[in-house]
Structures are given as structure tokens and as C-alpha cells.
Amino acid sequence: MELDELKTAWATFDKNVTQSLKLNEKLVQKISLENSKRKLNKPVHVFMVKIAVITFCIIFFLLDSTFKLSDSIPFLLIGFLIMLISLAYVILNVLKINRYLRIDYMNSSIVGLQVELTSLKVWILKVRKIELILLVPFMMSLLVIMFKIVGIDIIHHIQLYMLELAIVFSLVIPLFLWVNKHLYKRQLEEAHNYLNDLEVFRSEDEPSVSAL
Prior knowledge:
The chain is mostly helical and about 210 residues long. It is built from 4 helices and no strands.
């Protein structure tokens, strides 16, 4: 009888420990997934702010260029080029938001999420290259228009124009690379690391459950 009671007690203990381990695993999984998702939400908020700012700039240049540069077709065309590039930036940011939000944390496996994040990283790199390419004509055109608005035809002062371009790009390019590192690369890596840690925890936890 005592042996039967011992077996029953051990079975109950084994069941409780197994349930506790499964509960801990679910809790760790929930926390890790929430942390990973939170890392991806930060860039999304920045994308939304960028869309709002760029949209405001498009409206401003549309009104300002039409009013101040309407008597100069070349400069008016440059103003519209700026607006077209700005519109391209808006579209790219909308696409980035959609791509980030498409990652399904609720119904995807850990491996599936890791694959999604890796794919997102590659896709973001391609988009950032496009944004960097667009940055060159954007800054060149923007500089011309800004000087024109204050009454200076910078095109006829090519040396000053080249100097201003060198100064602008020496500031903008490092800023672009800094944003690329901290907003994109680091956030994606940290989101991926949470999933890696969760995968390691699950692989270490499975033998413990099996041993019981």
C-alpha cells in the first residue's frame, strides 16, 4: 500500500513539475515574442513620423515653388523633381510599414519568424540602397531651390555650389549610415536575438521535461 501511495505521489509530483515547466515555457515565449515585436514597432513609428514630415514638405514646396518660382520654368521643374522624390520616399516608407506589420507573431513558429526577420533584413537593405541613391538628386535639387528662394542663383556659382554640396553630403551621409545602423540593423538584430534566445531555451528545456 505504501508503495502504491509513493507511486501516486511521484506521479502527481511529476505531473505538477511538467505543467510548471510548460507554463514557464509559455511565459518565456510570450515575453520573448513581445520583446521581439516591440523592437520592430520602433521603426514603424519612425516611418509614420517620416511620412507626416515628408507630406508636409511636399505641400510646402508645392505651394512655395508654384508661388515663388512660377516665372522660372527650370527652377519650377527642379521643385517638382523634389516633390516626386519626396513622394517616392513616402511610398517606400508605406511599403516598409506594410512589410514590418506583415510579420505574424501570433500564428508563426519561432523558426518561421526567424526566416521572416532574415528576409525582412535583406529587403530593408535593398530599400535603403534605393533611398541612398535618391538622396543624391534630392539634396542636389533641394540645395538649388533653397538658394533660389532666398534670391541666389547657385547654378551660376558652380564652385560655391560644389562646396555646399560637399558640406551637405559630409553631414547627411554619416547621418544616413547612423540611422541605418541604429534604426534598422540594430532593431532587427535585437528582435532576432530574442527569438534565438527563445529557441535556445526551448531546446534546453525539452531534455529536462523528457528526463522527468
